[in-house]
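Hi all, long-time lurker, first post. I run a small reading group and we've been trying to get comfortable going from sequence to structure in the token notation. Rather than ask abstract questions, I figured I'd post a concrete chain and ask someone more experienced to write out its structure so we can walk through it together at our next meeting. Sequence below, copied exactly:
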Amino acid sequence: MQDIKAKSIAVITGNCSINEESDAIKGICSAAKIAGWNVFIFDALNSSMQDYEPLLDTSIFSLLNYETVSGVIITQNIMNNKELGDSLVNKLRENGLPVISLGYKSSICHSYIYQNSDYIEKITDHVIEKHNCKTLNFVAGIKNNIFSDARIKAFKRSLKKHDIPFEKKRLFYGEFWEGPTMAEMEKFLESGLSLPDAFICSNDVMAMAVISCLNNHGYSVPDDVIVTGYDGVEFERYSTPRLTTAKCNYVQLGELTFKSLLKLISGDRVPKIQSLNPEIIFSQSCGCQNRKNNHQLNLALKAMNSIGSLQYINMLSHKLATISAYSQDLESFRRTIAGKGFYNPNTWVLLNHDFDSPKSSKIYTSENPYSHFVDCFIVSENYEHYYDVPPIRHSEYIPDLKRIIQSGITNLVLMNLSFGGENIGYLVSSYDDTSRPLNSIEVFSNVLSQGLSSIKYRSKLEYMTVRDVLTGIYNRRGFFTEITSKVEELSASEDENKKQHLIIFSIDMDELKFINDTYGHKEGDWAIKKLAEVISIAGGPDSISSRFGGDEFVSAVISSEKPEKVILSFKEKLSVLLTELNHKSGKPYSINASVGAKSSSISAKTKIDKVIAKADEMMYSDKASKKRSHPR
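-- Answer (accepted) --
Happy to help. Here is the structure in token form:
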């Protein structure tokens, strides 16, 4: 992987499509493309809830192979969790990789940040000095959040500077999002407090929610009250009125961070802390610009495109959920969605080995998220021999990574697939913001996780209904379902030259009660499981073995050979296998069984239950003769 490493970096992020990091990643990828570098984006998604709060599943970060990249950028939504961020930085540096924190001032690595808090102060200064505001409300983000707290302090500095007292009752938290802000605004408007001269908001999303709520209650912005935002998000362009805000150009921040990382990789000296200044825009929501908008048509078209994109993502999500609900198994699910450009022709889905095996008890969690070898569930439809791709080491990410990069796919986003606390595997997709934005890949990944999980557990449940819990072989129901299907299929065949015989073996363990009473039921269960294994081996790979209950077993063999030869072979194999087992087990008891067998030519008149009844009679005869010969 050295040739890939020489021109590749990694970006470690999480849920980035709903934060400014999405724009930063655009800038990183744009600058990397110009420089001829590859970008691997490790995007952690929410996979579970704790106390009604979403938890970020960081399993995908363990997939990063240090031999594939020369440097790493970690975004602020990961670095905000100081314990997680510092742990990642230290581990990367231990492996000789330069690291830059994007958007977060770190004490242990290089950082490229925006000078944020001063600009809330400047916006507050503006509405006080230019618009003569005396009473101000502040809409903060999340309680005890470093960015939210810094912006509250900036707001307080401005008030103090202008001898305006801070009123705690005029501060509320909108959690940086629309829903909580609307709820807090309703509480404020019902509180009886007078309307302030201005609402100073910690970000644009909350500012637009404040305006919407005010409009719903008949207030006009800025005629009745001023509202300001911060960060200059894309959707602010659709705000009416346009917001007074401080625009942070995260695309530019991403570009500059990438260029600084290249300098570090080359061994050049780079300042420990580098920063950009936001651009303050005094606009319509504070009354500094009139409301005439010469770009309404352009903005309307952009809004329609955004809505159309969301509708398309929702349609794909619904379609995928429907396909998973009607798929009989994982293979039919794969054949429906793969190789047809269902989402993105350059998508790979790698599942933990034996994920779909109902016999496997291995569960992968965040502590041990991936099997060493992963199975290629879906690969790029451009890949040759689509259905013949063998398992790969997860450190390789995808099959034939080098060739994929050489084909021109230089940006790959990797996301974990997990559901209900179980790691399923991971998804890799080419990233192109114009045709495959990050939010659509994140949605696809989450819905795919749910679909895969539902099919697995539905298959496991179906497996359990036809399998004996203790031994894993068929139960009575499963046996009759399987053997009836085979007999009906063969009886409908018109090929008289291949006459088939059904041979039924009835097997009953000898002296199980003695083992249970003398050594305990745990030993009895062990003996039952071992006898089931031996019966399955004796019948051969095409036999149908089952446990009817207790110590009673039935095995069926379909063969074109003479039934007498098949019966003799089965009994001889069973005897040899039991002798070997008893010799090696070291148990103070022996496992033995009585056997009866009966055959019938397969035809439309074959009565399976009658053949079993005859085999039972012969088994009991065998058991009786043993008791006469060896009375206990």
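A couple of things your group might point at:
Residues 375 and 391 are 4 Å apart (CA to CA).
Confidence is low (pLDDT under 50) at residues 294-298.
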